[in-house]
Amino acid sequence: MAMSRQQVAGDLSLLTGVVTLLLGAHLLLPPAVQATLSFDARTFAPITLLTGAYLHVNDAHLVGNVVGFCSAGLVSYIVCLQLDERDWFHRTAVVCLLGLPVVVNLASYAAFSLRYPGLPLTTRGFSGVVAGFAGFLLVATLALIRRRHTRGTTLYAGYLIVLTLLGAVLVTYTGVPSVASTGLFVLGAGVSTLGLYGEARRAGLPTDRTARVRLAVEVGTVLLLVSVLLSLVLGLFPATLTAGGWLTNVVGHGVGFLAGVVVAVVAR
């Protein structure tokens, strides 16, 4: 189904509206109101499980999340347009925007309460939602691969992408990985690459120039999407976890990413 310019403009206005809401909440709400709307484990006001996600600690925190949301949200939307699954984007986006903040804050509360009992946990930030859209982008990328290729090709490509993302996080927090970790990564990447080659052989390698060019464009598109995913993941899991007295909630980011994957799969 072809998309009209009005439909696309309407969708983009929704994404712009989210950014406007984030900017407005940060710039226009008085500090006292922002403090009231932030999630505070000591008072545990249910509404703040949602509202806390739309508030930010400082300008840098806000800018980082706006850039991340625009990257993940816009690229996911473009992929959904390519798949002719605009409604899928709508369903997933609504759940990510309204449901993920609650899930992320509850999971963070549970994790920190178990690990650090009595810690006065206060959270602000849209990064859990950004992580959810990153998870959505991963699923959308695999859906794009599946549109033209076999289930096996999609699975092997998925393994390779996930290994790349996990490897990047591992290197971020451990520096030089251990021999065992490196060996497992090489083994997994090797098996996935051989699997992709085997699937390509069974499907028939392109023989004419047009088919080879089309395959090159498809591979280039996937590599571009993976690079966006990688930049998002590295932003969500930074090497330095504290800045300005605030702790980066990597637990919430991990939960948000996985929840985004689940929501995207179910919503489709």
TrEMBL record:
InterPro entries: Rhomboid-like_sf. It is found in: Membrane. It comes from Salinirubrum litoreum. This is Rhomboid family protein. It is a multi-pass membrane protein. One of its GO terms (cellular component) is membrane. The chain crosses the membrane at residues 59-80, 92-112, 124-144, 156-173, 179-198, 219-240, 246-267. Its main location: membrane.
